[in-house]
């Protein structure tokens, strides 16, 4: 009987703790939206409009440019998939950097933990870019500027891997940047290098064999290639390894959890 009572009390305590954390994350989300976008004009709708305007501008520019020069595949779906993926990992990584600093005063409240700050920030970035990607995809397909993707399951899987990788990257950079300012300074040039290697501007199949082997070590390449394969249909011209990106994401998740459990971060609370 005592064991059953203990199990019930343990289960109810876990449920209460989960509800408290959800309320804390919700409050941090609202605070983040108001702080970043304000209450005036379109307010938090910029969360959705900003990536849409950026992607639409790039789509128009690339379409005009490549009507003159030619392009190996349809420009619009190539850009929509590529730049939505780019925005996801870049936004998460830069929002993760120094995420604790502007919220340090909130850590004096007992229910607020370091991980709640990161959960709120990463949720906001992923939700914003995902919503923008869906709206843009539906609008462009509705305007008959691109066809329906052939494999929605593969598209969702690729986007999930990209979001998972991006969240882990943001948390890791945020935790490490609390120990030294070098992380913030070094990440900027590294991010430009990764921008070139991430598969945003090319397909792996366009590269020489030796270069393909090198770029396939870059984690972001695999989800982007998965989403392209989902749109155009599976074929030998798309190169990705689900096992590799799964292993990378699992490893980064473990590192992120260990970084969040760091005593120096725990001491802030």
Quick recap of the structure?
This protein has one domain. The chain contains ten helices and no strands.
Anisotropy-based shape: globular
Q: What is the ordering of alpha helices and beta strands?
A: HHHHHHHHHH
Q: What amount of the residues lies in strands? A: under 5%
Number of domains: 1
Q: Percentage of helical residues?
A: over 70%
> Main sheet?
none
- Give average pLDDT, whole number: 83
Number of strands: 0
Distance between the termini: 37 Å
Counted by DSSP, the helix tally is 10
Poorly predicted residue ranges: 1-8
How large is the radius of gyration?
21 Å
* Secondary structural class: mainly alpha
Topology diagram in text:
Blueprint: H1 2-37, H2 46-69, H3 75-96, H4 114-142, H5 152-177, H6 182-197, H7 209-215, H8 221-232, H9 242-260, H10 263-266
Helix pairs in contact: 1-4, 2-3, 2-4, 3-4, 3-5, 3-8, 4-5, 5-8, 5-9
Explained architecture:
It is a single chain. This protein is mainly α and 269 residues long. The chain has one domain (24-266). Helices cover 72% and strands 0% of the residues. α2 (46-69) packs across α3 (75-96). The two termini are 37 Å apart.
């Amino acid at each position: 009987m005592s064991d059953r009572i203990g199990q019930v009390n343990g289960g109810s305590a876990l449920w209460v703790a989960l509800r408290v954390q959800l309320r804390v994350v919700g409050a941090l989300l609202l605070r983040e939206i108001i702080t970043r976008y304000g209450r005036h004009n379109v307010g938090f709708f910029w969360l959705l409009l900003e990536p849409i305007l950026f992607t639409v501008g790039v789509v128009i520019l690339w379409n005009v440019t490549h009507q003159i020069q030619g392009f190996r595949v349809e420009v619009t779906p190539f850009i929509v998939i590529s730049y939505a993926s780019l925005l996801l990992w870049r936004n998460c990584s830069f929002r993760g950097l120094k995420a604790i600093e502007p919220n340090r005063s909130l850590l004096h409240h007992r229910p607020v933990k370091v991980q709640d700050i990161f959960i709120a920030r990463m949720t906001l970035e992923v939700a914003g870019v995902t919503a923008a990607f869906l709206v843009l995809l539906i609008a462009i397909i509705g305007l008959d500027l691109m066809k329906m993707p052939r494999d929605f399951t593969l598209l969702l899987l690729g986007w999930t891997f990209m979001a998972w990788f991006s969240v882990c990257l943001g948390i890791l950079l945020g935790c490490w940047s609390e120990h030294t300012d070098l992380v913030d300074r070094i990440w900027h040039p590294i991010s430009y290098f990764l921008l070139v290697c991430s598969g945003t501007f090319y397909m792996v199949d366009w590269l020489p064999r030796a270069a393909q082997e090198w770029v396939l070590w870059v984690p972001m390449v695999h989800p982007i290639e998965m989403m392209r394969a989902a749109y155009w249909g599976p074929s030998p011209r798309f190169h990705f390894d689900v096992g590799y990106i799964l292993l990378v994401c699992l490893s980064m998740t473990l590192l992120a959890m260990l970084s969040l459990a760091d005593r120096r971060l725990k001491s802030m609370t």
